Amino acid sequence: MGTVLRSELRQHRGYLLAWALSMAFAIWVLLPIYNGFLTGSSQANVLDTIGGPSSPVAAIGLSVEHLVTPVGMFGFLTIFLMLPLGIHGMHLGSTILAKDYREHTAEFLLTTPVGRSAVFWAKALTVWIGTTITGVAYGLAAYAAEIGDKGQAFDHREFWLVAGSAVLVTWVFAGVGLFVGARWPNLRSTLLVSAFVVFVSLCIGSFATIMHWRILTYLSPFQFFLDSEIARRGGYEPGYLIWAILLILGFTLAGAFIQRRADVRFAD
């Protein structure tokens, strides 16, 4: 498995580095700009614009009162940046399996024959390492942007819980991607499918929040770790956290089971 893992990390290092730098740059640029809106006379105008009952803030379940804090604004931006993060996780999870079927690129099998299960877990580990690197880069860049704004103090523990939520949501979609890649290995439009699933998930979460249908929020990872709830509880909501872990493990194990069934077995 180690040979496959090293091979996959080597093949995807440019892709993973590009995503990590892109997300880090995005939050590093956006966070100071949006924090600047919350100071001085512009704060009231901003709240009037994005704080109404039909605003995007209300639609995704965030608290307008909490939004005026630095960590609240970070949570607001994180919800929307979870879109590309989720697409990244699902696309990486699905394409890392599907590409070997489409492009016949399993070169490591020529020198080190291994079973499909070992290949799957090496690829899954590559996905988790890659998405974690992107999440860590995102969090560190956001932290640098926050501490660079010397005029505003913020809750460091709450900040890192919000940053961690971005990683957890990315892992959920990565698990879905691993299942999709194992179940439909000949899928060619992995990026389009990933974008569709992530966007529909966001829409379901917004609809469930507006209609106050809590049961539907379990279909949208975007609703699992809202910053306003993190601030109110002092941590993640246990029900959503357990559900997120079950989704990650469930989709990943389902993908592993599908791969294992496809292994060729030789009679003794």
List the helices and strands and how they pair.
Elements lengths: L1 H36 L4 H9 L5 H4 L4 H4 L2 H34 L12 H33 L7 H28 L6 H22 L2 H4 L9 H7 L4 H24 L7
Helix pairs in contact: 1-5, 1-6, 5-6, 5-7, 5-8, 6-7, 6-11, 7-11
What report would you give on this structure?
- The protein has 268 residues and is mostly helical.
- The protein has one domain.
- Helices cover 76% and strands 0% of the residues.
- The protein is built from eleven helices and no strands.
- Helix 1 packs antiparallel against helix 5 and helix 1 runs parallel beside helix 6.
- It is globular, with a radius of gyration of 20 Å.
- The two termini are 24 Å apart.
- 41% of the residues are buried.
- The mean pLDDT is 82.
Provide a compact summary of the structure.
The chain has 268 residues and is mainly alpha-helical. The chain has 11 helices and no strands.
Structural class: mainly alpha
Instruction: Tell me the major beta sheet.
Output: none
Number of continuous helical runs: 11
Compressed to H and E, one letter per element, the order equals HHHHHHHHHHH
**Shape assignment:** globular
- The number of E-state strands comes to 0
Helix content: over 70%
Number of domains: 1
How much of the sequence is in beta strands?
under 5%
On the 0-100 scale, what is the average pLDDT?
A: 82
Task: For the record, give the distance between the C-alpha atoms at the N and C termini, rounded to a whole number.
Answer: 24 Å
Query: Which regions have little confidence, pLDDT < 50, spanning 5+ residues?
Result: none
Rounded to the nearest angstrom, the radius of gyration is 20 Å
